[in-house]
Amino acid sequence: MSTIVSPSMLSADFLNLGKDVNMVNESQADWIHLDIMDGVFVPNISYGLPVVSQIKKVATKPLDVHLMIVRPERYIEAFREAGADILTVHLEASTHLHRTIQQIKSCGMKAGVALNPHTPVNQLEDIIQDIDVVLIMSVNPGFGGQSFIPQALDKVKKLKQLICTTGSNSLIEVDGGVNLETGKQLVSAGANALVAGSFVFKSDNPAATIQELKKLNA
Ligand code: DX5
Ligand code: ZN
């Protein structure tokens, strides 16, 4: 399976969002990553439901929505209505994670669980079989353009082992500080999907950068 690439619109040009969505549509990207921040779970506020619904009108690829909000279960249906295809919640933000995952799936979305850099992958032991995507954070969530935390590589390897031993079908996605160098290491460690924000949108040719990421393989 080739590497799944999910460009993060957090680094897009918000004054010309449609143009950047079209670039992603026409590129080899697989998903469109949308970062929702509430200023409580993370020290930043990004954009919310109206922006997701507008993007949905023009996007030709699945919307990979990353909720960095407290008590995400309050907004599952709202994000489904706005057009999310994959809905990822943080383990650290969800008291009843099992129920939250079931709710996401019963609304017809793929369920993702994100782990902050300090959260060990063994906390997923009893839930991994129910998850479609695990999102390993390789930066502290809240901002684009931060440096990659190298311990993420070890976490990807451990998670891959957990997935293999439990027979789970979960994909491993990694978010934060991804570029060609860290991307290559992540894919070799077992990552299936890469999120990249600043590396894609700050490059001279974002579509070509997406293509380079897409070419990475183990
Ligand atoms: C960070 C977000 C990321 C962010 C990644 O909290 O979850 O998706 O956009 O940005 P880069 O790729 O610039 O590290
Ligand atoms: Zn993200």
Account of the 3D structure:
The protein is α/β, with parallel strands linked by helices. It has an eight-stranded parallel beta sheet. α2 packs parallel to α3. The protein is globular and about 40 Å long. The chain starts with a strand and ends with a helix. Zinc ion binds next to β2.
From the helix content, strand content and strand pairing, which structural class follows?
alpha/beta
* Oligomeric category: single chain
Beta fraction of the residues? 15-25%
- Can you write the helix and strand succession as a string? EHEHEHEHEEHEHEHH
Low-pLDDT stretches are none
Percent of residues in helices comes to 25-40%
What is the CA-atom radius of gyration, in angstroms? 16 Å
Give the tally of β-strands.
8
- The total count of helices amounts to 8
Largest sheet: 8 strands, parallel
Ligand kinds: D-xylitol-5-phosphate, zinc ion
Strand order of the largest sheet: 1-8-7-6-5-4-3-2
Query: End-to-end distance, in Å?
Result: 10 Å
In short:
The chain is of the alpha/beta class and 218 residues long. The chain is built from eight helices and eight strands; from the N terminus they run βαβαβαβαββαβαβαα.
